Each structure stands twice: as structure tokens, then as C-alpha cells.
């Protein structure tokens, strides 16, 4: 049965909060600014309203997840810190003497209560609503881009992940006392997961028994991360390298990542107005219309869109023209081609970073050739670019039907470049307005850096698109609220 907490409980120690938590404290300001009761409305259908034991307040559990993302710490550490950090207790609507939850409760809350909720759109819309109420959003321009997050296990085996996390723990200990190296158990290198698990357990036991080392925050955090990997995800260890939702994406022709993309729209005031989470191989430009529509649903009247060349494809130019929106995106001749009428359903998308095409299975072409019919030699139109794929991968590809012909020695994908299709857009990008607006694009690069380096968004904290969307929801809400409070101070 759901339990609503409408106010702080009475306690003779409540005055402590006023004495030790400054008025400009981030968590105090957030508590005063946001009415979190909307969480009850979102989760009303996943709790029984009139039967069973009283559940822990879902708003409090949600706030725990926010703290976890704001400070980039583990479930164990966020609960541990809430025992003694008065700003945490105040934010969680706890009395100073109140007991904290068990960390496993957060895992159950994520998996049982939040898995079917549309928390990503809900939290972004809520933060934009607050920004509009406070008058800190004044522009009608959105900046679009995507940022990638590596899958939690990054195509590694369970054993490789245990090795990596135990290595981080040992390095944290050596920074304090190198002599501990002699007390650690001997490493195992026989390739067996069971033996690596046993080694990690012995390593953690040694450190936990050395209280002078264990009490260092840097050591404790690394130990809790390893423990969370071993204990909380033990039932998933055989699936760690088989995250079916994560896919290979490419940043350049030579570099790739295994994981997800978060496509975002952001105002010039650096408030994120929309986000779409996809697997890593998805094309950036294909998400533009959804980002615009979600931004408008959140209350933004979009008059300008700023993005890189990935967003200048023909469909986006037409969409912008139909909706009287200025598209500040430089033309790329390769992403603006007309798709030819093909008989198979296989899709190929252009990766603007690598300047190569990627098939629907995530394989990237490795070379391209360019030819032009003689009749078009003078006007420069009709150039055909052919992109070649590794035929050995095609032979064993699950999507080869209708794409690869058995026995073929090569596999290519050809596009026709039509240079003179976009005269209006080409003329617009030479205007002073276009050039001035294009200078604002750096802001979203800085926002991507903030998400990754301050809030741990460079690596997924769970597996699957559901987990990535939940991580995106809480992380984006946290950075939006921080930005809103900064803008309010500057007013």
C-alpha cells in the first residue's frame, strides 16, 4: 500500500537543519523549488491503494535515485551517506534521528516500480515547466546533438569486469599504503569466472578487516562498486556480455563504442527540453522531428534548430520549412541524397563522424568509391558514391536476407549525390543570421561533458534501454534543476 508523506515528521531535533544547512545549499533549494508529489501520480498504478503493508514513500526512494546521480555514487554509498549527511536527510524529508533504508530497496524500486514508467519525458517536462515558471527560459531556439554512453559491461565478459573493478580497488588502496600489496591474495589467471569471484571476495575481506584503510572514502567507494557488481548483479552474470539492447556505434572510421545514444534538445539557456534514448548505432538526424515535438510538448515554441551536419538531411530540411523553423545545420552532400527505390527492407544510415555508411546490423563500410556519368561531367550532378562492406561479416549476418546474395564476393551500397537540390538551404547558411546562431552549438557539447564527467553518464549504470532511460531521466532532471537554480541566482 502506497504511503504518502506530505510534510516533515515532528522531532525535537528538527532545528538542526536550520542551524547547519545553508540557505543556498543545492539540496535545500531543490526541495523548496520542486513539488515532488507528481511522482505519486506517475506510480499510482504500480502500488496497491487499499491493501498490504505500507510501502516506503516512493518520493523518498525517487529522491535517493536523484542523490545517486547528482553525486555519482553507488546504492550502498548513497544510503550510507544519508545516515550522517544532514543535507541528505533534509532532502529525503527525514528526521535527523530517523533510520535509513536498506540499499537493496533501491534495486527493487527500479526494477519493480519504475520499469514501465515514462519517467524520462515526465521529469524533463517537469523541469522545463519549473524553468518557464521562474522565467529563466527566454529563447525559442533549441540546440540538438547526441552523446554516447558505453554499455555497463562494454562487450566484456563477467570475468573481465571483475578484473577491472578489483584493479580499481587495489589502486585506491596502494595510493594510501603500498605495503598492503603483500597482504592481498594471489591473483588468479586461469580464465574461470568462479575463481575470479572467489578472488574478489577474498580481496574485499582483507580490506574490510583493515579498518584504517577501509575508512578512506576513496577506498570505500571502490569497494562498494565491486561489491555491487558481485552481489547485486550476481543473477545476471551470465548475461553481462549479452546486453541485447546495446549496439556498436561509431565516432570515427577508426573508433567505435558499444552501448547507447541519448539524443537531446537544449535551449540556449542550457536547459534540456527533450531526450530520446536509442541503441548506439542509430543515426542522429532521424531523431530530430521527435526532439522538436517533445520540446514543444514541454512548452517551448521552437523557431530555430541548431545542429551539426548530421541534421541537414532532406527530410529534416522539409520538416523545418513546413513548420516555419530555421534549421541552422550545414549541408552535407552525402546525408542529403535521395533514397533510391530499393526492393529490400534493409536500411543503411550515414555516420557523419566516420563519413561512412552503417548497415542495420551495425557493420560499417570500410571504403568508398566515386563515379560520375559522362553526361553530368559539366554540371557536377549525378555523382554515384559506392560504400563497400566486409563480405565475411555479411555471410554470417542475421539480417542478410534481401541484403546479401549468397555467393557474392562483394557487398556495396550506392547513393546518388544531387548537389543542386538544396539551393535555399545553401543560401541560408551563408547568411549572417545562420553564422551567428551556429556559434551557439558549443553549449550542447559542454552539456554533454557535464553529464559524463560530473554525473557518470559516460557508462550505463544498468543494462537494457529501460535502465538507460531511467538513468537518463534522473541525470537530466538533476542537471536541469542545477542549471535552473544557477539562472535564478543570476536574475
What does this structure look like?
This protein is α+β, with helices and mostly antiparallel strands. 42% of the residues lie in helices and 14% in strands. It folds into 4 domains: 15-117, no CATH class; 126-148 and 247-331 and 430-490, 2-Layer Sandwich (Nucleotidyltransferase, domain 5); 158-239, no CATH class; 348-417, no CATH class. It is built from 19 helices and 11 strands.
Sum up the structure in keywords.
491 residues; alpha+beta; Nucleotidyltransferase, domain 5; 3-stranded antiparallel sheet; 19 helices
Write the layout of secondary structure elements.
Elements: H1 15-20, H2 26-33, H3 38-43, H4 58-71, H5 75-84, H6 86-91, H7 104-113, H8 119-133, E1 141-150, H9 158-174, H10 193-209, H11 211-214, H12 217-231, E2 247-250, E3 256-267, E4 272-279, H13 288-297, E5 304-306, H14 314-322, E6 326-328, E7 348-351, E8 356-359, E9 367-371, E10 383-389, H15 391-395, E11 411-417, H16 423-428, H17 432-438, H18 442-455, H19 464-490
